[in-house]
User: Which sequence fits this backbone?
């Protein structure tokens, strides 16, 4: 049910919400802290859960046509929403979780969890994507930021990506067209929502247990968004933060992890403002 008055927040009308509801389940003033690994963030005016990749495209198209702020949210592992929330439409890919194996390839919808994809592939006897073990979030977000480890990046295994281009069309991009770079892709730069990804299952297998043990030894378990800063060429951001004497820096209930200085952790009850303040201090150093 819509709040009284026909307005949700500035820029989101009851009429637009009604049109979006044809393609997605809606929640109003949904706390975004429930949907991010940082466990912070105020309410979204409209929180939409499209029923299919095609429906996601329709919702994005409606928001673009009306000029309404919108944000496509995957697993919430690399996002920091303000404490005041998001005065627009947050479009969740949570229900777009289909996975289909076809010989030497697997196609996963944008909202498929990385952990679920790996579990299914292991059941089929394939471990070539196990270098992603322990990386939180969804396939769409992982591909957009070209997630990975020192030894491998997800973009190396991409065969093609279906995404919505700036003109609102669904386009299939080849791996070369994705323009993968260190923690980057055209989808991140152009803010093009990913619908699905097809991966090649060729290549070397990885030991998920060893990688998970390595992560546990090096990374904190408290809520975080993973590494905050990109590593500069030839160095590690965590080492530089440590050398600057900022390991353990605390603002409110947020803190630079003493286990890995490139992580900011929520000690319980942190605000987005606490985390943003730490980020600003580190940048200034």
Assistant:
């Amino acid at each position: 049910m819509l709040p009284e008055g026909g307005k949700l927040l500035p820029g989101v009308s009851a009429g637009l919400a009604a049109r979006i509801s044809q393609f997605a389940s809606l929640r109003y003033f949904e706390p975004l802290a429930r949907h991010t690994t940082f466990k912070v963030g105020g309410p979204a005016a409209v929180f939409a859960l499209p029923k299919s990749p095609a429906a996601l495209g329709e919702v994005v198209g409606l928001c673009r046509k009306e000029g309404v702020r919108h944000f496509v949210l995957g697993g919430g592992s690399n996002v920091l929403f303000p404490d005041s929330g998001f005065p627009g439409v947050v479009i969740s890919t949570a229900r777009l979780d289909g996975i289909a194996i076809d010989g030497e390839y697997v196609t996963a919808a944008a909202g498929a969890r990385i952990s679920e994809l790996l579990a299914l592939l292991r059941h089929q006897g394939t471990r070539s994507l196990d270098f992603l073990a322990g990386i939180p979030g969804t396939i769409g977000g992982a591909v957009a930021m070209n997630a990975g480890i020192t030894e491998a990046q997800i973009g190396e295994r991409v065969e093609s990506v279906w995404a919505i281009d700036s003109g609102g069309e669904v386009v299939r991009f080849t791996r070369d067209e994705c323009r993968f770079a260190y923690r980057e892709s055209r989808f991140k730069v152009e803010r093009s929502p990913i619908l699905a990804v097809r991966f090649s299952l060729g290549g070397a297998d990885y030991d998920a247990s060893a990688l998970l043990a390595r992560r546990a030894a090096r990374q904190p378990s408290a809520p975080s968004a993973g590494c905050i800063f990109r590593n500069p060429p030839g160095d590690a951001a965590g080492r530089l933060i440590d050398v600057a004497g900022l390991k353990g820096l605390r603002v409110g209930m947020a803190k630079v992890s003493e286990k890995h200085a490139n992580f900011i952790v929520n000690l319980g009850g942190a605000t987005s403002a606490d985390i943003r303040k730490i980020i600003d201090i580190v940048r200034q150093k």
